[in-house]
Amino acid sequence: MTGTLLPVFDGHNDVLLRLFRRGGEAPERAFLEGEPAGHIDLPKARRGGLAGGLFAIFSPSEGGGERVEALMESPPYDIPLPDYLDLTFAQRVTLHMAALLFRIERASEGTVKVCRNAHEIAAAIEAGVLATVLHIEGADTIDPEFHFLDVLHEAGLRSLGVVWSRPTIFAQGVPFRFPSSPDTGPGLTDLGRALVRRCNERRILIDLSHLNEAGFWDVAKLSDAPLVATHSNAHAITPHSRNLTDRQLAAIGESGGIVGVNFATSFIRADGCKDADTSLEEVIRHFDHLIEQVGEDGVGFGSDFDGATVPRDIGDAAGLPRLVEAMRGHGYGEVLLRKLAYRNWIRVLARTWGEPKTQAETGLAA
Length: 366
Known about the structure:
The chain is about 40% helix and about 15% strand. By secondary structure, it is α/β, with parallel strands linked by helices. Strand 10 (about 260), helix 11 and strand 11 form a beta-alpha-beta unit. Helix 2 packs across helix 5 (about 85-105) and helix 6 packs antiparallel against helix 13.
């Protein structure tokens, strides 16, 4: 750990998607050397104490992300989503983004590491190395026979979202709808139930963010792992389809799982607006509610950096200390802050991946 910054392990970012869309020669250099664009690069991470996180691979539908962002400016809204993504396209994009993360690691000369267990995450954070975990947002890339899942797991995949709102052969996601319950459609398909079992066998984290409520409860019944929503907020505060009800939050807490607080302003504000002029107190309000419902051991950060409009007072990864300081000012003590910032994530990841408890709890100095 460097300086006096509180290290933050983050449950979700979309920097690989940003770099994929950026194109050009050697985008890994842009990440390592820094550039004005985007929320995350290595210099911004170091300035803000971002010590690691789940780095998402997301296969975009053409024009989909920009359109969703634009339409979320004026609630109420119910944004139609694209249909199933072509498997070959999704697999091609997935390999491209995975290669990008590995190239960043290789070019970093030891300052970035792709971690495959919680012990490696703790050791990287202790050494001041950016700890990245390969995550896929939406199982559009997974074939019905799970060949690609097995190959990706061997390559380092440790976390998988069943859907990104858009449907897959495994499940239905929630639409981008406000106001709305997350109860928006049917649960897992037969293949979806098989995917849950295969992920449990491979010790791959199953991400419940973007999954509808029926699918959530199907996973809760089937899975033997902690329930995890990497980047979701409290429906009781912001009644968006993407947020979780108190009943869902209670189930996550009972399973020993975790919820990462999403900085996307549309999921923070009570009015559902996409607006960077959103106060840090509104973010902390979600932390308060999630801690009340899940418990202080089951809440972390899930920023959605590079994938959403975040509060201006955070701005990007370099602005994380401003949020941490606001949480201190709100009354959060140092023990709780360290749980929220990184310890809870390391503990839940260790349990999910089948590692000894002691590695998660003692692998990082206090």
